[in-house]
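Field log, afternoon session.

UNIT: design team B
ACTIVITY: writing a sequence onto a fixed backbone
BACKBONE:
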C-alpha cells in the first residue's frame, strides 16, 4: 500500500512517458469515462499547477472513535465484527506503577490498542466512511491514505477545500488534523497561489519544495538530495560500526547487515527512482571496511565484489551493490503495485485478489530475472576457471543454508568467530587464517585436504557423530524420542542369519561383504512408512580429495550413495526395513537421497508443529548445515595429539581403591 501510494503520486507529479495522441474513437471514449467532480468539472490537465499536501493528525491511533469504529466494522466486515466487539467492548487499562505507592489505573475508552494485530485493519475501516465522503466531495483530488497519514494531490484550491472538510468531519470519527504541522509541497512559481488558496479557507500550513512521505520522499531533486545525504551518512556510519563488530563477532555483524540494516536503503530503492548514485558512500564502506573485516583480511580482490553481491542460492553472500541494483528494485516495485496505482489514479474499485496475484507474479518474475542474471555471471566465472574453482562455485549454490540463520545461543544457531570465518573463507576459496604448519597427530604438512581427511585423534569421527546426532535429534522432534535408536544393527537381533551368512567368512552369500555386527548410525521408526524402521547411515566426504579429482560434486555424492545402498539396501529390505544413506560434502552439500530425506523430515515437522512446509525445509537444512560446517573448524584447529592414559583392568570392584590410587599418581 505504501509503495502504490508513492508511485501514484509520482505519476501525477511528474509523468515519465507521454502517450501518443489517440484517435477520435478512443479520445471520445476517454472523455466519456473520465472521472468528474460533483459539478461535472473534468480532471485538471498537466498544465494546471498542482501540489501535494501531507496531513498530520494528532495521536491518530489513540484518538480514534471506538463506537464509530465498531459500528463501521459491523457493516463493512461482518465476519470480524464479533471479534472486534469482544476486544473493544470494555475500556483498555493502562497501569502506572509508582515506587512506594499503589498503582494508578487509567481507563482508555477511545482508540485501538497498541500491539493489537488488527489495529491497522480496524483503524482503516473506521476511517473508510470519512475517506469516501471526502472523495465524493471532489474526485479530482488524489487522496491516498495509509493509516493516519493522509495526502491530497491536485489543484491547491480544491485541496484546501477538501482539507477544510476534513477538519470539520474528521473529529466525528476521532481524526483530528493539525494544519500547523502539515506540509504543502509545490514549486516556487506556484507557492504564492497555493498560499492564497489555503489562506482563503483559513488554513495555516507549511510550504516546502519536498518532504518525507511514509518513509520515501516527494519533491524536487535538490530537496531530495538534501534530505537523502544525512540519511546515507547515517547508514554508512551504521555499516562502519558493523565492520568494527565483525572483527570479533562476524556472524552477528553479517546477520545485522543482511537481515536488518540494508533493508532500510532497499526501501528507498523501491520507492525513489534513480537513487543508485546517491548510495555510493554506502557501497564504499561495505567494500572498504565491512567485507574485509568479515573475512578477516586487510583488503579483497576487486573482482570478488561481483561474486559476493550474488544471492546465497547462487554462491554469493546476499550483499548486493546498492548503486547497481537500485534501478531493478524500483522497476520491480512499480510492476508489483501497478493495479493499486491505477486504482488510485483512476478512482476505480480495487480487487484485492487481483492485486495480491499481481504482487505475487511480479515478485516471481523479478526473482527469476535476478536469478537468470546471477546465473549468467556465475556461468561466466565457471567457464574461465579451472576444475577446482568450478567445483567450488557449484557447491556454493547448495551450501549456504548456515548463512541464513539468525545467531541465537538458545536455538543453537550461534557460530564462534573461527567457525564462521573459517567456513566463509573456504566458501570463496581462501585458506583459513593462522593455520598450523604441521599436523600435530601425524606430523605431516597441514594442508586443507590433510586437515579434512586425517584420521589421527578421532576428529573425523567426531565430525561424523555430530551430524548423526543432529539428524537423530531432529527426527526425535518430528516423531518421538522413543522412535529413534542409536547405531541399530543391520541384521535385527535374534534373526536366524545362518541361512544368509556364512559363519566362517562372516559375510552375505551375495553382494558386498557385511559383518554380522554391521550397524547403521540412526534408526527411526515410522519415518517413511507407518510401523517400519528406516536405517540411516551417514558419511561426510571431502569432494576435493585426490581420489575425487576430475569429478563433479554431484557425481561424487551420487557415487557415495550407491556404495552405501549396494552394501546395505538389500539386507534391510529383506528384513522389511528401509535404508537411506545421508551423504554430505565437508561444506554441507547434500546428495539426492539426503535431500529427499530432509524434505520428508520437514514435512513431518510441519505436520507436528503446524508450521509452513517451506519454513521447516529451511529449518532442517540450516540445522544440518550448521552441524556439518561447525565441525570443519574442529578438523582444522582441533588437536589430534592424545595423552597417555592408564587403563587398569579389573573384573570386579575389588580393585577400585587401587585404581583410584594409581590414577592420582
Amino acid at each position: 500500500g505504501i509503495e502504490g501510494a508513492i508511485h501514484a503520486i509520482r505519476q501525477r507529479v511528474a509523468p515519465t512517458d507521454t502517450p501518443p495522441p489517440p484517435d477520435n474513437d478512443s479520445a471520445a471514449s476517454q472523455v466519456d469515462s473520465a472521472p468528474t467532480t460533483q459539478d461535472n468539472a473534468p480532471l485538471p490537465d498537466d498544465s494546471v499547477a498542482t501540489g501535494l499536501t501531507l496531513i498530520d493528525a494528532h495521536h491518530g491511533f489513540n484518538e480514534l472513535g471506538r463506537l464509530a469504529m465498531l459500528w463501521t466494522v459491523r457493516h463493512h466486515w461482518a465476519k470480524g465484527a464479533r471479534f472486534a466487539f469482544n476486544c473493544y467492548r470494555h475500556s483498555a487499562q493502562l497501569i502506572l506503577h509508582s515506587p512506594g505507592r499503589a498503582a494508578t489505573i487509567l481507563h482508555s475508552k477511545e482508540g485501538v490498542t497498541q500491539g493489537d494485530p488488527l489495529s491497522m485493519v480496524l483503524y482503516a475501516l473506521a476511517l473508510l466512511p470519512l475517506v469516501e465522503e471526502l472523495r465524493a466531495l471532489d474526485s479530482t483530488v488524489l487522496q491516498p491514505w495509509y493509516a493516519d497519514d493522509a495526502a491530497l494531490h491536485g489543484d491547491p484550491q480544491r485541496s484546501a477545500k477538501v482539507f477544510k472538510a476534513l477538519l470539520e468531519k474528521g473529529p466525528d470519527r476521532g481524526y483530528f488534523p493539525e494544519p500547523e504541522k502539515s506540509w504543502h509541497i509545490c514549486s516556487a512559481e506556484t507557492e504564492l497561489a497555493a498560499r492564497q488558496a489555503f489562506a482563503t479557507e483559513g488554513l495555516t500550513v507549511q510550504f516546502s519544495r519536498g518532504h518525507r512521505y511514509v518513509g520515501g520522499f516527494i519533491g524536487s531533486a535538490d530537496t531530495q538530495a538534501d534530505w537523502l545525504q544525512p540519511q546515507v551518512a547515517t547508514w554508512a556510519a551504521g555499516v562502519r560500526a558493523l565492520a568494527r563488530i565483525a572483527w570479533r563477532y562476524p556472524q552477528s555483524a553479517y546477520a545485522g547487515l543482511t537481515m536488518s540494516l540494508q533493508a532500510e536503503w532497499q526501501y528507498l530503492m523501491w520507492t525513489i527512482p534513480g537513487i543508485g548514485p546517491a548510495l555510493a558512500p554506502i557501497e564504499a564502506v561495505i567494500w572498504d571496511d565491512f567485507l574485509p573485516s568479515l573475512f578477516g583480511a586487510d583488503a579483497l580482490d576487486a573482482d570478488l565484489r561481483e561474486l559476493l553481491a550474488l544471492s546465497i542460492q547462487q554462491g554469493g553472500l546476499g550483499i548486493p551493490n546498492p548503486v547497481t541494483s537500485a534501478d531493478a528494485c524500483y522497476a520491480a516495485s512499480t510492476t508489483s503495485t501497478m493495479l493499486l496505482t491505477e486504482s488510485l489514479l483512476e478512482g476505480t474499485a480495487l480487487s484485492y485478489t487481483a492485486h495480491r496475484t499481481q504482487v505475487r507474479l511480479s515478485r516471481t518474475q523479478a526473482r527469476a530475472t535476478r536469478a537468470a542474471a546471477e546465473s549468467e555471471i556465475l556461468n561466466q566465472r565457471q567457464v574461465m576457471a579451472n576444475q577446482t574453482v568450478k567445483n567450488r562455485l557449484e557447491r556454493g549454490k547448495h551450501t549456504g543454508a548456515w548463512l541464513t540463520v539468525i545467531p541465537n545461543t538458545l536455538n543453537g544457531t550461534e557460530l564462534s568467530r573461527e567457525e564462521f570465518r573459517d567456513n566463509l573463507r573456504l566458501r570463496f576459496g581462501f585458506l583459513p587464517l593462522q593455520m598450523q604448519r604441521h599436523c600435530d597427530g601425524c606430523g605431516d604438512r597441514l594442508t586443507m585436504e590433510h586437515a579434512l581427511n586425517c584420521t589421527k585423534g578421532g576428529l573425523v569421527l567426531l565430525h561424523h557423530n555430530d551430524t548423526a546426532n543432529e539428524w537423530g535429534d531432529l527426527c526425535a522432534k518430528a516423531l518421538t524420542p522413543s522412535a529413534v535408536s542409536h547405531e541399530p544393527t543391520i541384521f535385527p537381533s535374534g534373526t536366524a542369519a545362518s541361512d544368509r551368512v556364512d559363519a566362517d567368512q562372516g559375510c552375505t552369500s551375495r553382494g558386498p561383504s557385511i559383518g554380522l555386527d554391521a550397524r547403521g548410525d540412526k534408526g527411526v521408526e515410522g519415518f517413511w512408512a507407518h510401523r517400519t524402521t528406516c536405517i540411516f547411515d551417514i558419511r561426510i566426504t571431502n569432494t576435493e580429495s585426490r581420489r575425487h579429482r576430475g569429478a563433479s560434486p554431484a557425481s561424487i555424492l551420487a557415487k557415495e550413495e550407491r556404495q552405501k545402498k549396494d552394501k546395505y539396501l538389500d539386507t534391510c529390505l529383506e528384513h522389511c526395513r528401509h535404508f537411506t544413506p545421508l551423504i554430505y560434502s565437508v561444506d554441507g552439500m547434500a546428495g539426492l537421497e539426503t535431500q529427499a530425506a530432509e524434505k520428508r523430515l520437514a514435512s513431518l515437522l510441519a505436520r507436528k508443529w503446524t508450521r509452513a512446509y517451506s519454513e521447516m525445509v529451511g529449518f532442517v537444512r540450516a540445522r544440518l548445515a550448521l552441524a556439518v560446517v561447525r565441525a570443519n573448524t574442529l578438523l582444522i584447529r582441533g588437536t589430534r595429539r592424545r595423552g597417555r592414559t592408564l587403563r587398569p583392568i579389573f573384573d570386579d570392584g575389588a580393585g577400585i581403591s587401587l585404581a583410584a590410587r594409581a590414577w592420582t599418581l
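LOG NOTE: The CA atoms of residues 135 and 143 lie 7 Å apart.
NEXT ACTIVITY: expression trials, pending approval
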